[in-house]
Amino acid sequence: MDYGLKGQVAIVTGSTSGIGLGLAEALAQHGVNVVINGLGDRDAIEATRAGLSARNGVEVLYHDADMTQPHRIADMVSSTRNAFGRLDILVNNAGVQHVAPVDEFPTEWWDRIIGINLSSAFHASKAAIPPMRAAGHGRIVNIASAHGLVASPFKSAYVAAKHGVIGLTKTIALEVAQQGITANAICPGYVKTPLVEGQIADQAKARGISEEAVIKDVILAAQPTKQFVTVEQLAGLLLYLASDAGASVNGAALPVDGGWTAA
């Protein structure tokens, strides 16, 4: 399917692994030049960058912006504009997680999760909106979570941040609605990524049960399909929202969760 995205430019935060890398791959497959961002071994990141570019015949750059540093986030956006002369798509995907009861939740982890999962989306959007407004076109897609719509125990910071992402999305959507820009949030259920695999271990410790029981009775118990969401399914929605076909979808929080939030 041709989404009409060839030649556009996207930034995908938190895209050196997991969901973000899958979304960057999907955009590149449709002719979008991509700036990836994230942490990890520099040699491994360079291999990832080069592979994305070679497989898809697009230009792929890497920016090492720390998502807790507003000035680095702004530099990532300005560097993208300097390199390509445009910015069409911003995907705010970067995220971290920590699981603990509220009264035992480390303050430093609260601050880190709110900073990376919520505040970074604000800072990146703040920097991206002016060039998008000047071009009369832009797409901001925030990767929220089913936890932006409902809560689970032991995830106070993550749930608060993801609820905040949806509120931020709606506010941006209203502000830019007449400027050719849309802002939407994708709300995945559980996707089998390294982050979720870490959550399985953390939940097992917090609840005092086995990892197998966490998968069966805690994680997939929330999803009526009893199946993990795939990155490819999230990518399909991203491509639609980024295309002209999605131009009238604005300010939406769209669940991709196997029916989790339907109850």
TrEMBL record:
Pfam families: adh_short_C2. It comes from the Bacteria. GO terms for molecular function: 3-hydroxybutyrate dehydrogenase activity; D-xylose 1-dehydrogenase (NAD+) activity. Its EC number is 1.1.1.175. GO terms for biological process: monocarboxylic acid metabolic process. Belongs to the short-chain dehydrogenases/reductases (SDR) family. This is D-xylose 1-dehydrogenase. It comes from Caulobacter mirabilis. The lineage of its organism: Bacteria, Pseudomonadati, Pseudomonadota, Alphaproteobacteria, Caulobacterales.
